[in-house]
Amino acid sequence: METQHTAKGKQIVECVPNFSEGRDMNVINQIADAVKSVEGVMLLNVDPGEATNRTVFTFVGEPGPVVEAAFRAAAKAAELIDMRQHHGAHPRVGATDVLPLVPVAGITLEECARLARRLAEQMADGLGIPCYCYEAAAYKPERKNLAFCRRGEYEALKEKLTTESRMPDKMPADLSRAWRTGCSVVGARDFLIAVNFNLNTTSTRIASAIACDVREKGRPLRDAVSGEPKKDADGQVIMQPGTLKSTKAIGWYIDEYGIAQVSMNLTNLSITPLHVAFDEVCRCALNRGVGVTGTEIVGLVPKQSLIEAGRYFLQKEHRSADLPEEEIVGIAVKRMGLDDLRPFNVREKVIEYLLEDRDGAKSEVQG
Q1: Contact 207, 292 (CB under 8 A)
Q2: What DSSP letter does each residue of 211-258 carry, written as one string?
Q3: How far is CA 11 from the centre of its chain?
Q4: What are the tens digits of pLDDT across the range 116-165?
Q5: What are phi and psi of 215, to 5 degrees?
Q6: What is the pLDDT of residues 25-48, one digit of tens each?
Q7: What is the C-alpha to C-alpha distance for residues 72 and 37, in angstroms, rounded to an integer?
Q8: Active-site residue list
Q9: What pTM did the predictor assign?
């Protein structure tokens, strides 16, 4: 899916909130019902993860309804999720952990940033949730980075709420609910792919090493003798960048599958496409004596990413790419092992196919 920044036509915004509950389907379904209660919003995907104890929602619509659906979903999550009891593999700071707005058509990233800032203010004032603003909506340069806002996770909540430099951008007058809800990170960004690469090892240490090999941030540069991180003249740790631009990655072990994974966000698909990330993780894994068995897409993937990947693998195999679109997509699914952990249904995971199917069903009902 190409993000269109045009002033003409209907404005379409995608929202991809992540909620800190991936096990209790009753809670997840109630949050989904809150989204679906807003007319004009299409809930495309609900992707729970048991080990991460986290669910990724994807819904689209015009700006007003999408923002209202996001607010209602955050309200329901605040009601049902108690962060004092939450444990999971994924970093998190709150019940509604991260809430990005993504421009799809007829609206700019800057307009989405303004919507995100207003939404954060509404969540603070109306729900008592302290909110950071990140990416394009950030008030401070360092807060463009989601990881910076999440630093210390929920367990650092007291410090976040009492230390001026760490205080959320939008603070409620009454902080009594914050201990239950935690904070939320609200912002605007372009489309990204969240993807986990499955390794044939249970070692979190190896997975983390591979993540540092590839992610743009890389790892601390260490002194060859002492092993301590090197620092610059200002006392800042010097980082050795990884091999993939516009990527963020961590390594973890997923008890649900009994494997370690490299979990990655691809934040600019024109710089690092999905198939490039897959090949590079495979190469770095091999260098560390392990292999990649497959790929898990979290949430949705743009069709174009799979078409580009399918053509890439056909070219590597010296085969013609003059094939129907469905076959090219199928080759991408197989070569990257998107069905390694569970069946990969393109009608449910590819955003354009989902929109086609939902629009078609709507037309049939209206007809």
Answers
A1: no
A2: HHHHSTT-EE-B-TTT-PBPB-TTSPBPEE--S-TTEEEEEEEETTTT
A3: 22
A4: 999 999 999 999 999 999 999 999 999 999 999 999 999 999 999 999 99
A5: -65, 150
A6: 999 999 999 999 999 999 999 999
A7: 9
A8: 90
A9: 0.78
